[in-house]
Design goal:
Strand content: under 5%
Largest sheet: none
Number of helices: 10
Shape: globular
Order of helices and strands: HHHHHHHHHH
Distance between the termini: 39 Å
Length: about 160
Protein backbone atom coordinates (compact mmCIF):
# COMPACT_ATOMS: atom_id res chain seq x y z
CA UNK A 1 0.00 0.00 0.00
CA UNK A 2 1.42 3.38 -0.88
CA UNK A 3 2.33 5.75 1.89
CA UNK A 4 -0.42 8.29 1.17
CA UNK A 5 -3.06 5.61 1.72
CA UNK A 6 -1.33 4.44 4.91
CA UNK A 7 -1.46 7.97 6.31
CA UNK A 8 -5.23 7.96 5.92
CA UNK A 9 -5.85 4.60 7.59
CA UNK A 10 -3.41 4.43 10.52
CA UNK A 11 -3.74 6.74 13.54
CA UNK A 12 -0.60 8.56 14.71
CA UNK A 13 1.31 7.76 11.52
CA UNK A 14 1.86 11.43 10.64
CA UNK A 15 3.21 12.12 14.11
CA UNK A 16 5.54 9.09 13.96
CA UNK A 17 6.67 10.01 10.45
CA UNK A 18 7.58 13.47 11.75
CA UNK A 19 9.75 11.92 14.47
CA UNK A 20 11.46 9.68 11.90
CA UNK A 21 12.05 12.52 9.44
CA UNK A 22 13.63 14.59 12.21
CA UNK A 23 15.95 11.70 13.14
CA UNK A 24 17.19 11.48 9.55
CA UNK A 25 17.38 15.25 8.92
CA UNK A 26 21.15 15.58 8.84
CA UNK A 27 22.06 11.96 8.19
CA UNK A 28 24.21 11.40 5.12
CA UNK A 29 23.84 7.71 4.30
CA UNK A 30 21.91 7.17 1.08
CA UNK A 31 21.76 3.42 1.76
CA UNK A 32 19.85 3.95 5.01
CA UNK A 33 18.04 7.23 4.54
CA UNK A 34 14.38 8.19 4.86
CA UNK A 35 13.73 6.76 1.38
CA UNK A 36 14.89 3.35 2.62
CA UNK A 37 12.56 3.65 5.62
CA UNK A 38 9.60 4.51 3.38
CA UNK A 39 10.34 1.65 0.95
CA UNK A 40 10.54 -0.80 3.86
CA UNK A 41 7.29 0.60 5.25
CA UNK A 42 5.48 0.14 1.95
CA UNK A 43 6.83 -3.41 1.60
CA UNK A 44 5.85 -4.24 5.18
CA UNK A 45 2.33 -2.97 4.55
CA UNK A 46 1.97 -5.14 1.43
CA UNK A 47 3.24 -8.23 3.26
CA UNK A 48 0.98 -7.57 6.26
CA UNK A 49 -2.08 -7.22 4.03
CA UNK A 50 -1.28 -10.40 2.09
CA UNK A 51 -0.58 -12.38 5.27
CA UNK A 52 -3.57 -11.05 7.19
CA UNK A 53 -1.31 -9.58 9.85
CA UNK A 54 -1.82 -6.46 11.93
CA UNK A 55 -1.20 -3.64 9.44
CA UNK A 56 -0.74 -0.97 12.11
CA UNK A 57 1.99 -2.91 13.92
CA UNK A 58 3.78 -3.75 10.67
CA UNK A 59 3.74 -0.16 9.44
CA UNK A 60 4.77 1.50 12.69
CA UNK A 61 7.57 -1.05 13.25
CA UNK A 62 8.83 -0.42 9.72
CA UNK A 63 8.70 3.34 10.16
CA UNK A 64 10.71 3.14 13.37
CA UNK A 65 13.05 0.25 12.48
CA UNK A 66 16.09 2.44 11.70
CA UNK A 67 15.24 5.40 13.97
CA UNK A 68 18.57 5.03 15.80
CA UNK A 69 20.71 4.23 12.76
CA UNK A 70 22.07 7.81 12.57
CA UNK A 71 23.24 7.56 16.18
CA UNK A 72 24.90 4.19 15.62
CA UNK A 73 27.53 5.81 13.41
CA UNK A 74 28.61 8.01 16.31
CA UNK A 75 28.05 5.77 19.32
CA UNK A 76 28.65 2.30 17.91
CA UNK A 77 25.55 1.12 19.78
CA UNK A 78 23.46 -1.32 17.75
CA UNK A 79 20.59 0.65 16.20
CA UNK A 80 18.20 -2.30 16.41
CA UNK A 81 18.63 -2.60 20.16
CA UNK A 82 18.53 1.13 20.92
CA UNK A 83 15.73 1.63 18.36
CA UNK A 84 13.61 -1.02 20.06
CA UNK A 85 14.00 0.73 23.41
CA UNK A 86 13.24 4.11 21.86
CA UNK A 87 10.14 2.82 20.06
CA UNK A 88 8.87 1.20 23.25
CA UNK A 89 9.18 4.47 25.16
CA UNK A 90 7.78 6.63 22.35
CA UNK A 91 4.73 4.45 21.78
CA UNK A 92 4.04 4.21 25.51
CA UNK A 93 4.15 8.00 25.75
CA UNK A 94 1.75 8.22 22.80
CA UNK A 95 -0.73 6.01 24.64
CA UNK A 96 -0.46 2.79 22.68
CA UNK A 97 -1.46 -0.42 24.48
CA UNK A 98 1.41 -2.33 26.08
CA UNK A 99 1.04 -5.45 23.89
CA UNK A 100 1.15 -3.30 20.74
CA UNK A 101 4.19 -1.43 22.03
CA UNK A 102 5.93 -4.69 22.92
CA UNK A 103 5.30 -6.22 19.47
CA UNK A 104 6.63 -3.18 17.63
CA UNK A 105 9.68 -3.04 19.90
CA UNK A 106 10.44 -6.75 19.48
CA UNK A 107 10.13 -6.53 15.69
CA UNK A 108 12.64 -3.68 15.63
CA UNK A 109 15.00 -5.50 17.98
CA UNK A 110 15.31 -8.57 15.72
CA UNK A 111 15.03 -6.97 12.27
CA UNK A 112 18.75 -6.65 11.62
CA UNK A 113 20.06 -9.41 9.36
CA UNK A 114 23.56 -9.36 10.83
CA UNK A 115 22.25 -9.88 14.37
CA UNK A 116 21.38 -13.49 13.61
CA UNK A 117 18.24 -13.20 15.74
CA UNK A 118 15.18 -15.12 14.64
CA UNK A 119 11.85 -13.31 14.69
CA UNK A 120 9.28 -15.02 16.85
CA UNK A 121 6.18 -13.10 15.78
CA UNK A 122 4.46 -12.45 12.47
CA UNK A 123 5.16 -8.72 12.84
CA UNK A 124 8.86 -9.34 13.38
CA UNK A 125 9.06 -11.69 10.37
CA UNK A 126 7.30 -9.09 8.23
CA UNK A 127 9.73 -6.33 9.22
CA UNK A 128 12.76 -8.53 8.72
CA UNK A 129 11.54 -9.61 5.28
CA UNK A 130 10.59 -6.07 4.21
CA UNK A 131 14.02 -4.78 5.25
CA UNK A 132 15.74 -7.62 3.37
CA UNK A 133 13.65 -6.98 0.26
CA UNK A 134 15.16 -3.52 0.13
CA UNK A 135 18.59 -5.18 0.13
CA UNK A 136 18.04 -7.02 -3.17
CA UNK A 137 17.47 -5.93 -6.74
CA UNK A 138 18.37 -2.64 -8.42
CA UNK A 139 17.96 -0.59 -5.25
CA UNK A 140 20.34 -2.95 -3.49
CA UNK A 141 23.01 -2.52 -6.14
CA UNK A 142 22.83 1.25 -5.71
CA UNK A 143 22.91 0.85 -1.91
CA UNK A 144 26.05 -1.31 -2.12
CA UNK A 145 27.87 1.38 -4.10
CA UNK A 146 26.76 4.03 -1.58
CA UNK A 147 27.95 1.92 1.34
CA UNK A 148 31.32 1.12 -0.20
CA UNK A 149 31.76 4.75 -1.24
CA UNK A 150 30.89 6.01 2.21
CA UNK A 151 33.21 3.57 3.94
CA UNK A 152 35.97 3.79 1.35
CA UNK A 153 35.97 0.03 0.96
CA UNK A 154 36.57 -0.47 -2.74
CA UNK A 155 39.15 -3.15 -1.88
CA UNK A 156 36.47 -5.02 0.13
CA UNK A 157 34.26 -5.03 -2.95
CA UNK A 158 37.09 -6.48 -5.06
CA UNK A 159 37.77 -9.17 -2.44
CA UNK A 160 34.07 -10.05 -2.29
CA UNK A 161 33.98 -10.45 -6.08
CA UNK A 162 36.98 -12.79 -6.00
CA UNK A 163 35.25 -15.24 -3.66
Amino acid sequence: MDFDRLINCIPHIKEILGVVEKAFENYDDPAHDISHVLRVTESASEIAIREGANLEIAVIAALLHDIKRPEEDFTGIDHAESGAKYAFQLLNEMGFESQFTFEVSEAIKVHRYSSGLNPSSMSARILQDADRLDAIGAIAVARVFFIFGKNGNSSSFTKAQAR
